[in-house]
Amino acid sequence: MLPQHLKQIRVLVLNDQEDLQRTLFRLEQGFELQFRLGPSLQGRRILLRTNYPLEGQRFERNNFRVLAWNYPTGREDDSDKFCSLDLKVAGSYQYYFGYGGTERSGAGYIVVDPVLRVGVENNVLPLDCITIQTYLSKCLGHLDDWTDRLRVAKESGYTMIHLTPLQTLGESRSCYSLADQLTYSPEFSPEGQSYSWTDVGALVEKMRTEWNMLCITDVVYNHTAANSVWIREHPECGYNLVNSPHLRPAWVLDRAICHLTSRVADGRYEAKGLPADITSESHLNAIRTVLWEDVYPQIKLWEFFQVSVSSAVEQFRILLQDGTKPDHSKTGGKKGLKIIQDPQYRRYGNTVDMDSALETFVPHSPSPQHIEECCDWLRRKLSELNEEQHHIVKQHQEQAANCIVGNVLYERLADHGPKLGPVSRNKPLVTRYFTFTYQDLTLEQELQLLDQPDETCHFLAHNGWVMADDPLRNFAELGSNVYLRRELICWGDSVKLRYGRGPEDCPYLWAHMRKYTEITAKHFHGVRLDNCHSTPLHVAEYMLDVARTVCPNLYVVAELFTGSEELDNVFVTRLGITSLIREAMSAGDSHEEGRLVYRYGGEPVGAFVQPSLRPLMPSIAHAMFLDVTHDNECPIQLRSALDSLPSSAIVSMACCATGSTRGYDELVPHQISVVKEERLYPKWNPSAPPTSAGEVGPQSGIIAGKVALNKLHQELAAQGFIQVYVDQVDADVVAVTRHCPSTHQSVVSVCRTAFWNPKTHQYNANVPPMFIPGKIEEVVLEARTVERHAGSYKKDEAYINGMSEYTVEIKEHIPLQESTVVKQGEVTSKGRSEFVQEITFQKLTPGSVIAFRISLDPTAQTMVGVLRYYLSQFSPKYRRGSMADEHPPDALQRPLAQLMSRLTLADLNFLLFRCDSEEQEDGGGCYNIPGWETLKYGGLQGLMSVLADVRPNNDLGHPVCANLRQGDWLIEFVSNRLINREGPLAQVGQWLGAMFNYLKHIPRYLIPCYFDAILVSTYTTALDATYNLMSSFVQNGSSFVRHLALGSVQMCGVGRFLALPPLSVKIEDVPYRISPVTGQKEQCCVSLAAGLPHFSSGIFRCWGRDTFIALRGLMLLTGRYTEARNIILAFAGTLRHGLIPNLLGEGRCARYNCRDAVWWWLQCVQDYSTHVPQGHEILRCPVTRMYPTDDCEPCKPGEVEQPLYDVIQEALQRHLEGISFRERNAGAKIDMNMKDEGFSVVAKVDPATGFVSGGNRFNCGTWMDKMGESERARNKGVPATPRDGAAVEIVGLSKSAVRWVVELHAKGLFPYDGAKVHRDGKESFVSYSQWNQQLHQGFEAGFWVSGDPEDPNEQHPDLVHKKNIYKDSCGASSRWCDYQLRPNFTIAMVVAPELFTVERAWEALEVAQDKLLGPLGMKTLDPDDMVYCGVYDNALDNDNYNLARGFNYHQGPEWLWPVGYFLRAKLYFAKKLGEETYSRTVTLVKNVLSRHYTHLEKSPWKGLPELTNENGQYCPFSCETQAWSLATVLEVLYDL
Predict the structure, then answer these.
(1) How far apart are CA 1469 and CA 1473, in angstroms?
(2) Is 631 one of the catalytic residues?
(3) What is the pLDDT of residue 833?
(4) Nearest Cα to 1389, choosing from 1452, 1347, 1344, 1348?
(5) Looking at the whole model, is its pTM more than 0.85?
(6) Strand bridging mode 178-184 / 214-219
(7) Distance from C-alpha of 1160 to C-alpha of 34, rounded to nearest angstrom
(8) Is 364 a catalytic residue?
């Protein structure tokens, strides 16, 4: 079992309604596959099924099992749970998933590659090490001689042999037309011997163990030889006229064309311009004429598709006379005549659906005259329909004529065709489509056989292929007209096999082919699926399942001609094809040939190091890249003999399986035909003379070059040279680099192709020089194809001989100085340790190849080795190629984790985050990538967010990568920013600086990948250090919890200028520093930014309301108790008029213009005292008061101090007495938009209800605080949402506070049980328990909107437009505002649930869910409200009062933080309503939160926004990450 960090894990995210069955996912044995839920599925009960078998069980394709979910945190958390498969068995496997009543909501396939083994010790042969050579088996002679003939492959450096089928061949002698699938062909046994499959198996095993070679052969499932004995005995196995009567018209046409052939051969059409020897365009036109004038009229094919009008009309007449009525259950009462195609396809066999006729043609009365009229209508309609059929058949005949003429043109006239010569009975006009054994019958006699099923069952359709056809459609089945339209390019020696839907449809055929498959899989290591794209998928699937039970690591290759990668994938995924055959011959020039190398494998040079656990990415099929396949034209005919070597070299540099076909290396100058070739391959003889036809050796053709190239190909794959770069040096020269990312060695092959013969084509004499970075260690090989005097090519009668006039001149492993192809130019320095070697070409003639082995410059090599050494502390994958540092710098003496463990969370804020304005406060800024953009953060997250997109795609062209290659600016920015701090942060900076000193001395093209590796290691270590400083809720939490908890680090920091006023010096654990501004010792408590980037620095960083809405989630739940305490006490010190400031402005510039901040503050004090161990002790903490009286100047720290409980008492007492004052400095100086009346602040407790109310219509004292700014729209100085009166959340928060102090007093923790108040000149005492009781009793009477006109509590029934909700306020100056549906009541539900009746609360929450819940946030106003507008645009200034200058900030846009309260309220009340409701609610909550998780993961800010526009659309005016958004979502997860 591999250790977890080395195990390769791939993650496949499941999404609702995502069908990935045409997407290829390739995995290796030993990998783990994890299925995780995408946002659309989170919160649902997903059942995931797969047919991947349990260990030790057999694979059954239709046997699916349910996978169990793993919960890494121990809690059922949908963001982290996964199902996993440990992949140990090769093959193609399916998965699908569903939920609720739907079994399949998505599906896909995975393909697990086989592990191939060779040699006595069963060493693994990696797929990319495969080099294969194809042999036509019939050219190998007797089995005794195979070893000598196949040895050519071994000595040429191949690792796999592909043999065409070894079975008995059919009459045509085509390698792929098999007469008997089960017998080993007797032709391979000499007289007196009878070899069997066992003997072949022994040879294959000997090659595997002694030669280290594997052997595969073809399986042909699609057809059998026309002369197969078993097909005579089992004609049901083919498509005949009995089981496929739809082919009858096509058979008739086929026979007619056969007779036409005889007549043309006999010269009977010469008078019509159609001689036997067809040589011109006019002869082709004559064929068309004869077809249309003689053939088609004689056979009348349309009659097979027509109705006999007279008999149909007669039948109809009888029904009418009998008064028959139509069966409405069949017609559905709809008119329209239906014709039924005769399933037997007889002439005039089609019939009329009489129910449809009776429904359509209804006589006016039963009188004979009306019946006759009706019959006439039908007769006319049927004649019309017959005419339509005639027209359709005419179109088929037109296409048939085109195809026949096209065929004749290719076979007899075309230059690239076979030029068959005159038409004869042996060389017919066109290939026959059906088997037919009779001789000398006239066409008329043959057509009479149609009525004799015992005869027609033997008329079998031949196989072939159809140009541009859909490969997933069977062209012989009903519904296809390929045979009738003559669109089949037919193989007249083979019968197409008819499998039906499964073994039950044709038992003999399935059993026969199963046996054939078992024999093949038993004796070979793999199969090539012949004619794969035409083999029915379910058949190939079944047979390969059989093969894999015999040979589990079966290697499966196929060549597909679908013309589409997506369609290729259908075959690859369903069949588990290991490698798809690709061919270099498909390239029209060297540029395209190079592109294919890049396309078929490897990653770019300098690619990023990918994590072991990463997303499963779709891939293209593994390639088997051949210089030429055995069934294609010979490259020497199409290009030139000299191109064989360089094109082979280009192919062998590909990072995939490669190969060739026997004959290519020996320069056989023609195609070795799979049908006609009967000569034998030459044997291997190391000293064979060049002129020998029956033997080949190292000097034959390009064999010497091929040995070196195959050896190089295997070495590169085995040693991990997985990176590829292709450079088109000029029109004919291609340079391919293979690079090893751990040792940084490269091999560069420079190949000069010769697509045109140099004797007739003028090649450029000058090849441009090349500049090779690094140190050239050696010339691995240099080879040229040269002419020699060995006579010119003459085709041998007995052996498949090649061109003896060419051979290869080759040198291997020589120093650069000894090269005759290149000359060393000068070495230039490109950087600190980057040297570039200039290479000039002296003799790179067309047809030559040179390969260099290159390493980094020795200094650079050392630097990379040392870098890898230090990186190996983070992952063992860096050990290979690592080198210990002889003189390690001090900064690197200690592991990074140790340095990080000394950082505080405030330090980590600096290390990881800080946006541009925070950085600018220190005189810096975030890094700007010229011509691109500025990073979001100065800390590591700024880069990590960008690299997270760049890394998986290896996007080395990205501006960040370009910037890193161009210079050290970014590298130095990262380390210097930290070195300039003091203490542990500087030490982390020095560690990075020391690592970067090595980084700067490696070649620039490697810098992005190693910079990323250093950053990833630093970042992950920093995250570990962060979570170690947090609560167990975070440490043991899901990824989602941890992502959100990072928001605490993001938002909480200490800037150059302190945001919080000082605390009492008597308090312990307060951090101090030397002020960067004054040089004096000062407190440096962290403060909480409201949001980034807009509320992050200066006086706009800290807001009372935002701080205390976010504090529980970001500080208490994450375990930051001391820092939370400090913030609570700092704000307590600023209490004035009984209020906490909204804009803190360090206390000195505070504005006391909000009514809710004090209640949020009190809620946090309560949360602190209940959540933190011994938290109630905060009540006795000394508070240093800045404003002990309302009108005093700010006091010095420590001048006036009192315990926190006194400050709380003051806040409550002032509210009970009533607060009323005018803001200091009222006017434009503190608010440019406010009207004068707005500066008057009022807050009081209504004695009648106990509700805290206040405000007026010119100010906005709650979180919905948008003040109008547009003069043009006349909304300047008017608040959009004054929410004066008693705002619902303030009532809830005050109830929570009062209940809490009552409880505290009862426990002796709070000295006050009420407050003295002066009202109307009298002093009275208000008890807190009385106030608590009053609120409890009066809340629903004041806030519930029942919609019942008789409701005694409803004073304004005319204003009700939504019922079963809670008012947003009570007693607003604009009464209708009370009745607006907004999300604020959910806050009261969470903090004071006792105020609500469970059933009413649930109804209101359902309305809110229906009307207000958006993808990420809550609509701030009911969309049915007339002033609702969901798009916030603060820059727009127009005449629209409700919109101008963002007036609708809280009138529709979807704010995120209320979602937390809505979901928490849902969970609370659902629990009260029982298990089922709670379970449904949990599903909803998870589903909603999954969208936040997705946003959080994708956001470059790693945060949640302040708000979105309607339906979750991005709002450019929103903060990208907002403290309270993160906090309230985290609180929901805590509640879950």
Answers:
(1) 7
(2) yes
(3) 63
(4) 1344
(5) yes
(6) unpaired
(7) 43
(8) no
